[in-house]
Design brief:
19 helices; 6-stranded mixed sheet; about 550 residues
Length: about 550
């Protein structure tokens, strides 16, 4: 049953006479407190925050003097007291609340400054279980939520980045806060505690091997960048980090270039996830446009891999995203610079490569420090009207699959290597996905079509265009292999691949018409392998 509310309107202006400060992050604390003291604001504080203020020569009242009770249990219990929360939650213009304050000797707080134990930082640094649990803040979120609920009378500040704004606001308001500002601060405060609780629940879910698709779910993150716009100029956008340490576009170190756009980050994430599929043993390169690969290759050297990936679709590569699976060298960097490129991302960038890119200061250069583990668990979230869909990350890897030859002819060693490579790439192509590959490089990619046969024909057409651009007598699909991210519902998709010149096929299998597809493959001498695993990517 909902709690009934009294209809007492809050005041617009609230004088700030008493402030409660309790922070883990001491950034800007002394300067803020000194400015408040200069405005004749009485300071009340806790533990380390109080010591920092006292050491700075500021007059500050310890919270234990307010509660009449010492901090106990290693500081776990210090602010969970009626004289604290009564001062936070009291509706100052409610006569009943005023009477309760008088009866119990409770003084109100007009300004509360709280930031929380560094739980996310402890998790990111790999803290052990006991340390991580100890850094779950209880009193802090309780004070934040109480203050934010009572924003009609209390201003709650949770971010050191807001200190200057609050001080300016107090100065302009002659020592008062207005309701609009208190409301904005309250919204931010509840978002902060929601994000904090989400981080705690995510960690516990993993640490305690709990059910990831429980009755309730929590999403949360911290904004680290605001974009000029989203996918299109009329859409607002920002980047939030969840605390996951997976290497990628969101967590990479930006070495140079213009600020990353929404599309840059989306495409760069797709490129790096794809190239990470191959590990670091053999040089590999992925070139991405609009979150789809336009060329992927492995080779003996990084520059050879780049050239092979580029040759798959040199037209689409213009203005693309290029991802590498190992340290980027100067020679390869100079090859990348032969055309316009938006973003380059790699686990490491050599000094020579950085010098080469310095001549193109707008090019975004990202260094991740490592590859993303394609087998690592994780989640993908997609909004839908009224909610969101949540699923596990596609952590299936072709090297772990029990591949089954279903045709009369088995693929030879070269074909099998290319089949595995093509299926790795198909995992990262929008469905319906068709990938032709030869000698460790894609030679034609068909993505995102409503019919699989159309994807197959588009990929073959791309190979014809590439052959013309390279001056080849025939497209590289002649003698290639082909991967499909899902089964062929009819033989027509397979026959389109045969027409393009493919000699072997890899696909999940599982269609009602598998027998017809296998029969068509045998009729044309095609080797076909079933993976038993589908890679839809919408």
């Amino acid at each position: 049953m909902a709690v009934a509310a009294k209809t007492i309107a809050p005041p617009d202006r609230v004088p700030v006479r008493r402030a409660l400060l309790s922070v883990s992050d001491k950034t800007g604390l002394v300067e803020l407190a000194a400015a408040l003291a200069a405005m004749d604001v009485a300071l009340v504080s806790t533990g380390g925050t109080r010591r920092a203020l006292a050491d700075a020569g500021l007059a500050v009242t310890d919270i234990s003097e307010v509660t009449g009770f010492p901090e106990i249990m290693d500081g776990r219990v210090k602010t969970l007291h009626p004289k604290v929360h009564g001062g936070l939650l009291a509706v100052r213009n409610d006569p009943d609340h005023q009477a309760a304050m008088t009866e119990h000797g409770i003084e109100g707080f007009d300004l509360v400054v709280v930031n929380l134990y560094p739980f996310e930082e402890v998790v990111a640094s790999g803290g052990d279980e006991a340390t991580t649990i100890e850094n779950i803040d209880i009193g802090g979120p309780a004070m934040v939520r109480a203050s934010a609920k009572n924003h009609g009378h209390v201003a709650i500040v949770t971010d050191p980045d807001d200190y200057d704004m609050v001080l300016g606001h107090l100065s302009d308001g002659k020592g008062t806060t207005d309701l609009a500002t208190r409301r904005r601060l309250a919204v931010k405060a509840f978002k902060r505690t929601a994000s904090y609780d989400a981080a705690v629940s995510r960690w516990m879910e993993t640490a305690f091997d709990a059910e990831p698709f429980d009755a309730f779910d929590a999403l949360g993150g911290r904004r680290v960048a605001t974009m000029r716009y989203g996918e299109n100029p009329h859409q607002a956008a920002a980047l939030y980090l969840t605390g996951e340490t997976r290497p990628g576009a969101a967590t990479a170190r930006v070495l140079q270039g213009k600020p990353l756009s929404y599309n840059n980050i989306n495409d760069t994430d797709a490129a790096f996830e794809l190239v990470s599929e191959f590990g670091a043993e053999t040089p590999a390169v992925a070139i991405i446009k609009h979150a789809n690969p336009c060329g992927v290759a492995r080779a003996g050297t990084l520059i050879d891999a780049y050239r092979a990936a580029f040759d798959c679709d040199s037209t689409s590569a213009f203005g693309g995203i290029v991802a590498f699976n190992r340290e980027l060298d100067a020679e390869t960097a100079r090859a990348v610079l032969e055309i316009f490129t938006e973003v380059v991302i790699a686990p490491a960038i050599s000094d020579g490569a950085r010098e080469a890119f310095a001549g193109k200061p707008n090019l975004r250069l990202l260094q991740t420090g490592g590859l993303a583990d394609p087998r690592a668990p994780g989640f993908v979230v997609r909004p839908v009207a009224g909610g969101y869909l949540k699923q596990g990350r596609d952590a299936a890897v072709v090297g772990d699959m029990a591949l089954r030859v279903v045709t009369k002819r088995a693929p030879d060693t070269r074909e099998m290597n290319d089949l595995k490579f093509a299926f790795q790439v198909a995992k990262h192509v929008k469905s319906n996905a068709i990938v032709y590959a030869r000698d460790g490089a894609t030679v034609g990619i068909g993505a995102g079509q409503m019919s699989r046969v159309d994807s197959s024909r588009i990929a073959a057409r791309k190979a014809v265009d590439a052959a013309e651009a390279l001056g080849l007598a025939e497209p590289k699909t002649k003698g290639s292999v082909v991967a499909s991210d899902a089964f062929f519902p009819f033989a027509d998709g397979l026959l389109a691949a045969v027409e393009a010149g493919a000699t072997a096929v890899i696909q999940p299998g599982g269609s009602m018409r598998d027998d017809q597809v296998i029969e068509a493959a045998d009729a044309h001498g095609i080797a076909m392998v079933f993976t038993g695993t589908r890679h839809f990517r919408h």
